[in-house]
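Our working data are protein records whose layout never changes between entries. Getting from the letters to the tokens is the skill we practise here. To make this concrete, we reproduce a full record directly below:
***
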Amino acid sequence: MAAKKLIFYGLLVFIPISIAAHFLHWGSVVVFVTAAIAILPLAAWMGTATEEIAVVAGPTLGGLMNATFGNATELIIALVALNAGLVEVVKASLTGSIIGNLLLVMGLSMFLGGLRYKEQEFQPIVARVNASSMNLAVIALLLPTAVEFSSNGLQASIMQVFSVAVAFVLIGVYLLTLLFSMRTHTYLYDAGIAETESELELADANLAGDNLEGDVVHKPNLWLWTGVLLVSTLLVAYESELLVETLEEATAQLGLTALFTGVILLPIVGNAAEHATAVTVAMKNKMDLAVSVAVGSSLQIALFVAPVLVISGWVLGKPMDLNFNPFELVAVAVAVLITNSISSDGRSNWLEGTLLLATYVILGLAFYFHPVLETVT
């Protein structure tokens, strides 16, 4: 963890570099790249601050905080892009986040964890509940597109109202999943909780630079971590402005499309800290927590972040509906299908991780060449 802490501290230097690049006009590519790198440590500190505040808040309120702010970085980037009118990029980033968490994060966790341990186990019942929730998410994303495809002359305003109605349903389901996991069926999630909490306490102490050596972990300073969360959030919002402002010009110069950028690049930037956490705990044979991070983040994107963006677009006058690119829906359906198939037995190994990673690479290539294929046809 010392190396991880050092990396996060080192990457903070890109905050002033990105600001200097913006004001000194070093070019869109430099601003885009440095802003993206600057968001990585800020996202990590936001996550750490949320966890520390959650410890003070108690298990119920703390769990709610983690469930609400778990994807705060992605939500901020998406809101900034939505306000700038980049609706298609926002939609692509949502599908990319779901695909990335299910295939890249879980794939890396199973692969690297499987190299160290021959076979790892996690709760199959929880996996099945998560699979059902992800199936609902696919249905919710698929039906608006199906309505648009099968209707002649459907007005955009009607699609917007339909999407807002679906968004409220999804938020309701998300709240019920929190009630299920935190109240009525907590026993399903109890496996390995004590060990997991000790791992997280040790990780947080190391990140903060504390030396435990058998001592009792001190209660976090609420005001300190609240300040860290506030400052990190403001900086993420500013860096997101720089990122979105230069996105179109920078990606064009780099030879990338808005679709590929939204599906592949932006989710990696927003999720990097979570990716590292999932892989780290998987390599410590805590596959329950790794699966929880990967699948839980995907569910939060589908059932909370996407609906919030739809409702926000409605309020801000920036039309955002659930009528997604059909190719994006196919990719999400493929990711959910293979993830549910692999995780249904509650066991994992390095080969299953390889299958998930291979699927992610193939989908990434498809998104990269997708515009070329369109041009050829």
